[in-house]
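Technical annex, item 7. During the second reporting period the consortium partners agreed on a shared format for inverse folding records so that results from different sites could be compared directly. Each record opens with the tokenized structure and is followed by the designed sequence. A conforming record, contributed by the partner at site C, is shown below for reference.
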């Protein structure tokens, strides 16, 4: 039987054996107070709305025995993998500085870790990425190719930054991406709306937009 996700601009056929769930940067630094997101002047309550729907979808993907991949944005302790332009931007990036959850966006620190609600289980790859896109200078494409993956369900934060950068890159690499709108979060409601509209515009120019209930229903059939 043909599986389909209910989605916009039209339903997306998929095969659960070639579909992966990609959780983008659900780290304390972005969704908890005292991290990178808040240091940049943002209200993390805007992105926390994605946690519960992500949890439901994560559970459904695990029940369907799908490949689940988690990503984390961050840098080496010596910041040698952080481009100077990312580090020095106005002198206010906070990357590497001490905060209540350790050094901001530095690997191994508490703030860099994935949130407990969505913590990976054994067998789920975690991709450490130095940039916004999950493909840039990582082995994500290799892992997806080796697993025969064609379709990506992309969740996480933030919608218009790391999620969208990843979806655009994935689309160019030949993957079909579906984004459940309640499983992605932005500090800016207007950016959230525009980013999702851009993905599905022009006949799914970058991908499809759906919601957690429809994606979970699609996985159940
Ligand atoms: N600042 C912001 O909206 N996002 C990021 O810096 N990284 C991610 O989106 N993960």
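Designed sequence (site C submission):
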């Amino acid at each position: 039987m043909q599986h389909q996700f209910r989605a916009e601009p039209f339903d997306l056929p998929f095969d659960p054996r070639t579909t992966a769930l990609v959780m983008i940067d659900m780290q304390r630094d972005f969704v908890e107070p005292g991290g990178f997101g808040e240091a940049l002047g943002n209200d993390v309550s805007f992105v926390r709305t994605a946690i519960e729907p992500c949890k439901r979808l994560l559970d459904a993907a695990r029940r369907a025995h799908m490949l689940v991949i988690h990503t984390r944005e961050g840098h080496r302790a010596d910041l040698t993998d952080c481009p100077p332009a990312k580090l020095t931007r106005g002198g206010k990036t906070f990357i590497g500085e001490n905060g209540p959850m350790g050094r901001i966006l530095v690997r191994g620190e508490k703030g860099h870790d994935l949130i407990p609600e969505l913590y990976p289980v054994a067998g789920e790859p975690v991709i450490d990425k130095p940039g916004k896109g999950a493909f840039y200078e990582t082995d994500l494409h290799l892992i997806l190719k080796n697993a025969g993956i064609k379709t990506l369900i992309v969740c996480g934060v933030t919608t218009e930054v790391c999620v969208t950068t990843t979806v655009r890159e994935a689309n160019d690499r030949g993957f079909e991406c579906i984004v459940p709108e309640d499983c992605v979060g932005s500090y800016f409601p207007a950016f959230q709306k525009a980013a999702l509209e851009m993905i599905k515009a022009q006949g799914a120019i970058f991908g499809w937009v759906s919601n957690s209930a429809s994606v979970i229903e699609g996985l159940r059939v």
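DSSP finds nine helices and eleven strands in the chain. The chain has one domain: 3-65+114-220. All partners now use this format for quarterly exchanges.
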